Amino acid sequence: MSIKVVIQGAAGRMGKTLIRCIQEQKVTGLKLVGAIDLWDVPDIGTDAGIAAGTKEAGVKMSTDLAAAAPDADVIIDFTSHFGTSGNAERVAEWGTAWVIGTTGLSDEELAEIHKASEKVPVVMAGNMSLGINLLCNLVKEAAKALHAKGYDIEVIERHHNQKADSPSGTALMLGQAAADGAGLDLKKSQMDGRTGHPGARTKEEIGFHAVRGGDIVGDHTVLMAGTGEMIELSHRATSRETFAIGALNAGKWVVGQKPGLYNMKNVLGL
Ligand SMILES: NC(=O)C1=CN([C@@H]2O[C@H](COP(=O)(O)OP(=O)(O)OC[C@H]3O[C@@H](n4cnc5c(N)ncnc54)[C@H](OP(=O)(O)O)[C@@H]3O)[C@@H](O)[C@H]2O)C=CC1
Ligand SMILES: O=C(O)C1=N[C@H](C(=O)O)C[C@H](O)C1
Fold this sequence. Notes:
Layout: E1 3-8, H1 13-23, E2 30-36, H2 48-51, E3 61-62, H3 65-68, E4 74-77, H4 81-86, H5 88-94, E5 97-100, H6 107-116, E6 121-124, H7 130-146, E7 152-159, H8 169-182, H9 186-189, E8 190-192, E9 206-212, E10 218-225, E11 230-237, H10 241-254, E12 260-262, H11 264-268
Parallel strand pairs: 1-2, 1-4, 2-3, 4-5, 5-6, 6-12, 7-9, 8-9
Antiparallel strand pairs: 7-10, 10-11
Helix pairs in contact: 1-10, 5-6, 7-8
The structure holds NADPH dihydro-nicotinamide-adenine-dinucleotide phosphate (NDP) and the ligand O=C(O)C1=N[C@H](C(=O)O)C[C@H](O)C1.
């Protein structure tokens, strides 16, 4: 039997990619039962498959999450920090498994997700691709070997000109992996850009630099710079399908799990 999926943020870049991947069976065993977005979106009332540029889904884009979610097996959410956190209490009440790709949540908003995960299984990751989740392991390993030898660690991310949050969720995942390897506390080490006269770099800093332009899907580089050499560990996403396929696989994995907060490493077995 197919897993019943609601896409939250269905009219967005990721929402439409997810709907196309379901309809074109890029991940099998899933059925679209709800496609939800906000009232101001022109696609409301249109068949979700047609709106996403693929075959008809038999499901209209709607604003009514409460009508679709309780009977679904999983909600896949790529919306905004306030949209995701604002729904946490309702999702926990409905008991529907939840996959969250939304980035840019504050600590208070993340606390709402943690609370919901006491009642429902939740997979949350700033990047759902296999490549980035593997790269986090490589970054941790490299930082462990190099930071103690004096190498400086910086994260550079590049995204399209519509991206709302900075640093990206992926940059923070990579920064966290580097901090874990280097034995640093990211909350204290994070240095977002540099301007004015910040002075010489300290050894505890992990710098984050955000570039925004055009239609860049998502590029991330972790730079480890020593004396006389530097290493760059990079990932380049060339299609949003890599995130969508990861999220749909997370959707299949999370249904039937115990309540708790999981990540893509749990899903991928990394
Ligand atoms: N984890 C991962 O692998 C990835 C994560 N992302 C993240 O996913 C999020 C979405 O990205 P993207 O698709 O590019 O963004 P878009 O802005 O293209 O799409 C988001 C959609 O969600 C809608 N929306 C906002 N709030 C709500 C709500 N409360 N209920 C229903 N719909 C809502 C928006 O409507 P409106 O336009 O009216 O605001 C918009 O249509 C971002 O946080 C991004 O960083 C993106 C790619 C991969
Ligand atoms: O907003 C995006 O587009 C992306 N967001 C995620 C992030 O914040 O890292 C993942 C990917 O890089 C694309």
